[in-house]
Every structure is written in structure tokens, then in C-alpha cells.
TrEMBL record, chain B:
The gene is nuoJ. Its main location: membrane. This is NADH-quinone oxidoreductase subunit J. It holds the Pfam family Oxidored_q3. The keyword Nucleotide-binding does not apply. Coiled coil: none annotated. The chain crosses the membrane at residues 6-24, 31-49, 55-77, 89-110, 143-164. Belongs to the complex I subunit 6 family.
Length: 349, 200
């Protein structure tokens, strides 16, 4: 069927067919992603509701399922207030800077052996490079608002993101060391080999177990990197003002969507790098897309779970955790894994 | 025209425009942002040359780290453009000599094909060998001493930056509760007045 469609489009568009085909694939990734973002906000409110012995949103549509659409419509109809004295162009560009990287990174994310938009050799590097651009949205939003609170909030969130990017990057260096590749697909494949995988217990040979300290560091770092509770300095309404305090309506909604799109992206990366991607946890079940989606959902649930569980960190404690605990830990573990790989006990051959 | 050629000219046009705006825009933050755009388009051009590692490293290091810190600094500086422009005419002769030198160098590099400067052809990357792997192999075999030397210099830079900003050992932060309950607001909080500024 795919071939027939391909032929039909080739006849229709002729020489620009590759462009049209690529655009079609992009839409096929982005459209479900945006739907997931919308329903992640719904799921979050439901989960937190249940954890606090409430029912959560249940009025709009059956079981409240239309709620995210209603929220979106409300934000869409609200006025976007642009403060006088703000830098208008930068003020408008900033939310796009925050949202675009969260979508652009999906270009290299593999869904199974063959299902990937662009299978480049250095896909992990690409994801890290694109991910590091997201911080511009925050800095520019803080600066363009021409408000002291927004500016200080922007500085705070940007410093936090840069700090945790380092420990995240170091954790990823260990992963790519043991899998001997920068390609996300190859990294998933390398997790399917090992002593436990031979016994049919694949989930014990995924990276999370041999690299357990790095997995823990990565899991905490992605929470800080996406500015989520308990590291949500941007949104601590009761005690601190964030970088987007001058944004309203759809402009604010784009920041909000960027946060959730980033959550889905880093959860997918966690599933691919540490939890074996689309590989099945046990030998007698087949590998498949479903496993990848289940793992992403599990990591996303972890995000919501800790938001409902832990109190917010103080800012200096966040920075201390990043710089004085995680980075030294990562550097030491880098050497430990390096020695391990050179010793006869190497399990990654 | 081939699609690749179109992409090259598209990226180059953006690159040249962004480069011009870096030196002509009045607002230093806008200039820094145009520099980011220039880096981005340059990375795209390198990607066309199949130098994927260099292109991604350019974005990761310059766009993701260096320019962020640069923006931090530029945003916090109070730059008066009129004061900066005062010395324009006195610097012009020296500036134009340097500009002419740069133009001459660029002409030599860009016109190298016509002048027959490059007898050897540009090496083409093999399609099946990973760019990153090739760079890594070279760095850790043939160029291992220069590479280690560069990293030691960077380490010295880090230590120097820490040493410059450290102001002695921090005092112990523990508090005496007996003293703490007698503290007055005036001992702890200093209220500063910061009148809002109008943008011109």
C-alpha cells in the first residue's frame, strides 16, 4: 500500500517528490506527537488528582476526555498581552525558540529497526545539539519582557538548564562508550546482546542495570532539564516568579506545550538509551513498537508521580546537586566504566 | 539547478545576511542573535559538505554553550552606542587596512581554483565510514599529543577561572538559634529602590 501511494505521489509531483515525501513523514510524526502533548496534560491532571484522592477533570466530554481541547480553545481565544517597552519581535520569537527544538529532535528518533525519518550516523550528537538550543527560548523570553522578574527568572532557569545539560551529556558519554556507537538505532541493538539476553531475560541486559548510577543521574537530570517539579523554579507560583510571567494567551500556551513536548522527547530518549527501546523484555515475546510506547509511558508516569510526591527544591540546592554531586559522580563513573571495558570482565563485547 | 545547489545558495544567502546584521544592528542582543543565526547556517553548509561531526559540534559548542554565555553578558551590560561610536573616524584607517588584508586573504582562498593554488583535489569522505569515527581515530592516534596538549591548556583555563573568582574559604553557615531569635529585620534585609527605566 505504501508503495502504491509512493508511486501515485511520484507521478503527481515529479521532481519535487522527495521533498513532498519527507514532509508527509514529518507530518506523520508531528501530528500524533502534538495530540500526545495535549493528552499528557490531561493525564497529568488525572494522575495528580488520583494521588490526592480527587477525581481530576471529569466535566467536559465523557470522563473529561475533551478537557485538553477545551483548554486549548480557551487559551487560543485569550488576548496576547505584549508589554509596552518590550522588544516585540524577540518577545514573539522566544516561545518558538522554546518549542521548535522539541519537535526538530524527532527527526533522528528511531521507532524500530527501519522506522526512522533520518538515519544519520551521529544521531545522539544531533539530539544533544538540538536540545541545547531550547535554552534560548527561556533567556530571550526573560530579556524581551523588559521586566526585572522575568529577566531574573530567565537567568535562573537558563543557568539550571545549562548545569544539568553537562551531567546529562556525561551520562550519555558513558552510554555511547559501552554501545560503541553514536547512532540511536545501534545503541538500542547493542542492548539486546549479553549474558542475560541469552537466557531470555533481555530486560536485565539493557543499559539501566550495568549503568545504574548513570541511569539515576540521567533520570534526575532530565527532570531538572525540562524545568519540572521538584526542580520547577520557573513555575513556583507561591514563592518565586518565572521567566514567562509576562506571557499570556497562546504565547504562554506555546511555552507550556514546549515543556510537555520536551518531556515526551526526553522520555523517549531514556527509553531508547537505557530501557532497550523497542526490544522485548523477555525472550518469548516479540520486539515491537508497543514496547517502546509502553516504556515512554512509564517514564512519563515517573515525571507525574514525582511531581505529586516531592516538595520543591531550593535554587541553591538544585545547583549544588548538579555541580557538586552529579558531575563528579559522572566523571568518576566514566573512568570506572572505562577500566571495566578494558578489563577481562568486559560484558559489552 | 540541482536541489543541493539550491540549498547551498539558500543557506549562504542567510549566512551573509546574518553576518551583515551582526555588525550593523543597533541592539547588541539582536547582533548576538544574528551571530547565532550565522552559526546555524554555517553548520548547514558544513552538513552539505558531509562534515556532519563538525556541523553538529559547531551547534553544540558555539550555539548551545558559548553564545548562551555571551548573551548572558551582553544582556547585563549597559551599552551606550553613541559613546561607542565616538572614535569611529580615528579608528577608520587601521580598520580599513585590516579589512583590505582580510579581503586579499579571502580572494586567495576563494579564487584558489582559478590561480591553481590547490593542485591536489579535495579529499572525499567515504560513504560507508562514519565521520565521527574517522575524526576520533585520527585524534587518538596521529594527533594524540596535540590533542592532549589542548585539553591540558583547557584544564589550566578552568582552574585559572576558578582561582580568579574564589575569595577565600566560605565561612561556616551554621547558625546559633539563641542569636537567631533576637534578629531584627533591619539586620537582615536592605531595601533598594530600583526605578523602572524607559526604553528609548
Amino acid at each position: 500500500m505504501v508503495d502504491a501511494l509512493q508511486e501515485l505521489l511520484q507521478g503527481l509531483f515529479g521532481s519535487v517528490f522527495p521533498l513532498v515525501w519527507a514532509l508527509l513523514k514529518i507530518v506523520l510524526i508531528i501530528a500524533p506527537l502534538l495530540l500526545c502533548v495535549a493528552y499528557l496534560t490531561f493525564w497529568e491532571r488525572k494522575v495528580i488528582g488520583w494521588m490526592q484522592v480527587r477525581v481530576g477533570p471529569n466535566r467536559v466530554g465523557p470522563w473529561g476526555l475533551i478537557q485538553p481541547i477545551a483548554d486549548g480553545l480557551k487559551l487560543f481565544l485569550k488576548e496576547v498581552v505584549v508589554p509596552t517597552g518590550s522588544d516585540k519581535r524577540v518577545f514573539v520569537i522566544a516561545p518558538m525558540f522554546a518549542f521548535a527544538p522539541a519537535l526538530a529532535a524527532w527527526a533522528v528518533v528511531p521507532f524500530n529497526d527501519t522506522l526512522v525519518l533520518a538515519n544519520v550516523n551521529a544521531s545522539l550528537l544531533y539530539v544533544m545539539a538540538i536540545g541545547s538550543i531550547g535554552v534560548y527560548g527561556i533567556i530571550l523570553a526573560g530579556w524581551a519582557s523588559n521586566s526585572k522578574y522575568a529577566f531574573l527568572g530567565g537567568m535562573r532557569s537558563a543557568a539550571q538548564m545549562i548545569s544539568y545539560e553537562i551531567s546529562m551529556g556525561l551520562a550519555l558519554v558513558v552510554v555511547l562508550m559501552v554501545s560503541n556507537s553514536l547512532n540511536l538505532g545501534d545503541i538500542v541493538h547493542s542492548q539486546g546482546k549479553g549474558i542475560f539476553a541469552d537466557y531470555g531475560l533481555g530486560f536485565l541486559s539493557w543499559n539501566w542495570l550495568p549503568l545504574l548510577p548513570m541511569f539515576a543521574v540521567y533520570l534526575v537530570s532530565i527532570v531538572a532539564e525540562t524545568n519540572r517539579a521538584p526542580f520547577d523554579m520557573a513555575e513556583g507560583e507561591s514563592e518565586i516568579v518565572g521567566f514567562h510571567c509576562e506571557y499570556s494567551g497562546m504565547a504562554f500556551a506555546v511555552f507550556f506545550l514546549a515543556e510537555y513536548a520536551n518531556m515526551i522527547l526526553v522520555s523517549t530518549l531514556t527509553a531508547l538509551l537505557f530501557l532497550g527501546g523497542w526490544l522485548s523484555p523477555v525472550g518469548f515475546l516479540p520486539d515491537g513498537l508497543l514496547w517502546l510506547f509502553l516504556k515512554i509511558a512509564a517514564v512519563l508516569f515517573f515525571f507525574l508521580w514525582i511531581r505529586a510526591t516531592f516538595p520543591r527544591y531550593r535554587y541553591d540546592q538544585i545547583m549544588r546537586l548538579g555541580w557538586k554531586v552529579f558531575i563528579p559522580l559522572c566523571l568518576i563513573w566514566l573512568v570506572v566504566v572505562g577500566c571495566w571495558m578494558m578489563s577481562p570482565l568486559n560484558i559489552w563485547k | 539547478m540541482e536541489f543541493k545547489t539550491f540549498v547551498f545558495y539558500f543557506l549562504s544567502a542567510i549566512l551573509v545576511f546574518a553576518g551583515l546584521r551582526v555588525i550593523t544592528s543597533r541592539n547588541p542582543v539582536h547582533a548576538a542573535l544574528f551571530l547565532v543565526l550565522a552559526f546555524f547556517s554555517a553548520a548547514g553548509v558544513w552538513m552539505l559538505l558531509q562534515a556532519e561531526f563538525l556541523a553538529i559540534a559547531l551547534i553544540l559548542i558555539y550555539v548551545g554553550a558559548v553564545m548562551v554565555l555571551f548573551l548572558f553578558v551582553v544582556m547585563m551590560l549597559d551599552i551606550n552606542l553613541d559613546r561607542l561610536r565616538e572614535g569611529f573616524w580615528s579608528y577608520l584607517p587601521l580598520g580599513s587596512i585590516i579589512a583590505l588584508l582580510m579581503v586579499a586573504e579571502m580572494a586567495l582562498v576563494l579564487g584558489g581554483n582559478y590561480l591553481g593554488l590547490f593542485e591536489s583535489s579535495v579529499p572525499q569522505a567515504a560513504a560507508d565510514v562514519s565521520n565521527v569515527k574517522a575524526v576520533g581515530r585520527l585524534i587518538f592516534t596521529e594527533y594524540v599529543y596535540p590533542f592532549e596538549l589542548a585539553s591540558v591548556i583547557l584544564l589550566v583555563g578552568i582552574v585559572a577561572a576558578v582561582a580568579l573568582t574564589q575569595r577565600g574559604k566560605r565561612k561556616n553557615k551554621s547558625v546559633n538559634p539563641a542569636q537567631q531569635v533576637f534578629v531584627k529585620a533591619a539586620d537582615r534585609v536592605r531595601v533598594l529602590q530600583m526605578p523602572a527605566e524607559k526604553r528609548e
